[in-house]
Amino acid sequence: MTQDAVAVSLLRSAWDMTRVFFGLGLLGVMGLLWSLLAVPLYYLLPRRAGLVVGRWLIHTAFRVYLRTLSLIGACRFDLSALDALRDQPPMIVAPNHPSLIDAVLVISRLPGLACIMKSSIVDNPSLGAGARLARYIRNDALRSMIHLAVADLRAGHHLLLFPEGTRSTARPIGPIRGSVALIAKQAQVPVQTVFIETDSPFLAKGWPLLRRPQLPITYRVRLGKRFDPPTDAQAFVTEIDTYFREAWAGATLPEPLAASSRDDGSTV
Questions:
Q1: In this predicted model, what pLDDT tens digit does every residue of 102-114 receive, in sequence order?
Q2: Confidence category of residue 260, pLDDT binned at 50, 70, 90
Q3: Less packed terminus of the chain by CB within 10 Å, N or C?
């Protein structure tokens, strides 16, 4: 390799890392600024108004964030399939979960979406205030989580719930957990499966934060089958699991880097 080629390669690597850290830093700054606004709004606004304002602002911020990633050439997004779910009756939106950015992708297209989050994120000073204002649902107590999720669905909202309960620990998908079936059965709402496709393992389970991905990263979303509310929760879990695996048959997907799982339906 010539000296010029080496110099070009080093510059490209530096530019890629600059875009990666800018993207991660921007998300953190946006979360912190939003929290500074969300704290007083949480106490000033009635619960219903806070929920509407909080979810709309998170949706808007995520749209701006993804547009920024596109503008700097870090990512390419094809998320328009999710627009068909707007203004439809309450349902569980159930995607696979290849990376940390998946919740951002879905929320950016569906403004009134409820979301189940890890309690550690809700308690995070940079992210938690906005989540509390939006009345996102904590995952630290299964019975309470299911109760709140069912109530939110009955109030007319969609619910984002990753059936694996965590980022994918295997390809094409990790084990499906029971929370999706229990919530759908109790709320009597359908489950809309969603396929998130990406060409990179960036921010997958076990991805080292300082590792440089190959840019640009492509994310594409497509809608899968919509399942009717279940009558048998265990049989429904098996059916969903089989459907995802058969739908991914033959697909070439980046492998996750570590294995771990939780039965909580949380978004990360």
A1: 999 999 999 999 9
A2: very low
A3: N
